[in-house]
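Objective 1b. Sequence-to-structure analysis of Dabb family protein.
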Amino acid sequence: MKPIITLFAALLFASCGEEPKKETTEKEEEETVKATEEVKGPKLRHVVLFKFKDTSSEEEVKQVEDAFNALPSKISEIKGYEWGTNNSPENLNKGLTHCYFLTFDSEADRDTYLTHPDHLAFGDIVGPHIADVTVVDYWTK
């Protein structure tokens, strides 16, 4: 029994010397985000929202997804990329189901993307399946 008490006491004393982990405050997180944004500078965001035709099959929609997802590997001006499908419970999407979110360093890079042969070829793939599209570009603040 005495060895167990000795072991417990040794562990207790060993843990007393450790510094407690400091929790990050909300203010510190905000300052970190602000500093990161200042270092990176403003970015141009290009948001694309698609509504697919009811006649487009799941396979055709998947083909469009795959073709869009391939663009960042083909167009070096794309500096950031994400995409996903709508899951908002608000039912305000007006039938738009797919969101593509691209980041560029400049308007010139965005314009290169818009006229790039791979982007134009993507237009040929997506065109027959799109019932509606919305595009919004903005500079981050």
